UniProtKB/TrEMBL annotation:
Domain D-isomer specific 2-hydroxyacid dehydrogenase catalytic: 35-353
Family: Belongs to the D-isomer specific 2-hydroxyacid dehydrogenase family.
Protein name: Glyoxylate reductase/hydroxypyruvate reductase
GO cellular component, one term: cytosol
Species this protein is from: Desmophyllum pertusum
Coiled coil: none
């Protein structure tokens, strides 16, 4: 009697029972992760995702935001989502994506557009891009402060519309930066970098208000040494007030009628953090009535700000289209960090920059 058929039968059984599941598991582990990038981003980030050879990449190749209905269709079955501030990541979107979604990576420092309670409940990692845009945002803050203080936009407009006549002693004058007191609300990386850039202009005092008092070594990162004060003192004593705070339930609308009423009549207010920390109706009234002298905004609610918004009717208010990080190297650094966050989340690893839960 030949044992060959019996051996073949046994081999087939063993293969089906033990080998095939192993192969199946290996194939599953090699399956590419389904990923959506919701906007045109620097190519370096796309190359990182492609080079990993682990992503089945879907890409909304447009400078404009992906429409909400289109986004809800494309997120179905995703393992990873690479998004921007314009995408609202809420329960509706997460339900549409499915339970297999592992990571949401936003190309932004702020992540108030992401529902952290929802992602936490579902075990979804959230990455963001802090640190890499400190210098660019600090530089823009100073540029915006100077543009407001020296009335640069208004002056350039006068050249174009024929308002430039003979030299006038009081024409286009504004508050003086040298010898002034600068108040910084939010003395983190960006706040400190702003103070360091303003110091050479001859600022006499730097006041700051933060959740926690900084160490003496941190306060000495600027010269003159920064002084920790309460909010009321900062408002009352500062000639220039700059905002560098995250948008939270506690900070929403914190710059309001009450805050502006405590500022000097020659004060300049600058916000490059989040539009939601300012009550824009109250700011308009403060500027229109001369309660404060001027304001510079790089962030607003909504974005873009409608062209008929009252703030845009005031020469004393300079509004920029959210360009705080708009330097080539900074945007590339943000994009590549977001890509690395995404890949780490897909691999079940710690994210290089994970949002606080």
């Amino acid at each position: 009697m030949s044992y060959t058929p019996f051996v073949r039968l046994c081999r087939g059984f063993v293969g089906r029972r033990f080998v095939n599941p192993i192969v199946a598991r290996n194939m599953a582990s090699q399956r590419k992760h389904k990923v959506l990038v919701t906007r045109t981003v620097p190519q370096a980030a796309i190359e990182i995702l492609k080079t990993s050879q682990s992503c089945d990449l879907d890409y909304w190749d447009s400078e404009d935001p992906i429409p909400r209905d289109e986004l809800l269709k494309r997120v179905a079955g995703l393992d990873g989502l690479y998004c921007l501030l314009t995408e609202k990541i809420d329960s509706e979107l997460l339900d549409a994506a499915g339970s297999q979604l592992k990571v949401v990576s936003t190309m932004s420092v702020g992540y108030d557009h992401v529902s952290i309670p929802e992602t936490t409940k579902r075990g979804i990692a959230v990455g963001h891009t802090p640190g890499v845009l400190t210098d660019a945002t600090a530089t823009l803050t100073v540029a915006l402060l100077l543009a407001t203080q020296r009335r640069l936009i208004e002056a350039a407009g006068e050249v174009k519309n024929g308002g430039w006549g003979t030299w006038k002693p009081l024409w286009m004058c504004g508050p003086t930066l040298s010898g002034s007191t600068v108040g910084i609300v939010g003395f983190g990386r960006i706040g400190i970098a702003v103070a360091q850039r303003l110091a050479p202009f001859g600022v006499t005092r730097f006041l700051y208000c933060d959740v926690h008092k900084k160490s003496e070594s941190q306060e000495k990162l600027v010269s003159p040494k920064a002084e920790h004060v309460d909010m009321d003192t900062l408002f009352k004593e500062s000639d220039f007030v700059t905002a560098h705070t995250a948008l939270t339930p506690e900070t929403a609308g914190m710059f309001n009628k009450d805050a502006f009423s405590k500022m000097k009549s020659n004060a300049v207010f600058v916000n490059t953090s989040r539009g939601g920390v300012v009550n824009q109706d109250d700011l308009y009234e403060a500027l229109k009535t001369g309660q404060i002298w001027g304001a510079g905004l790089d962030v607003t609610v909504p974005e873009p700000l409608p062209t008929n918004h009252p703030l845009l009717s005031l020469n004393s208010c300079v509004v920029l289209p959210h360009i705080g990080s708009a330097e080539d190297s900074t945007r590339e650094a943000m994009a590549t960090l977001a890509a690395r966050n995404l890949l780490a989340g897909l691999a079940g690893e710690s994210l290089p920059a994970q949002a606080k839960l």
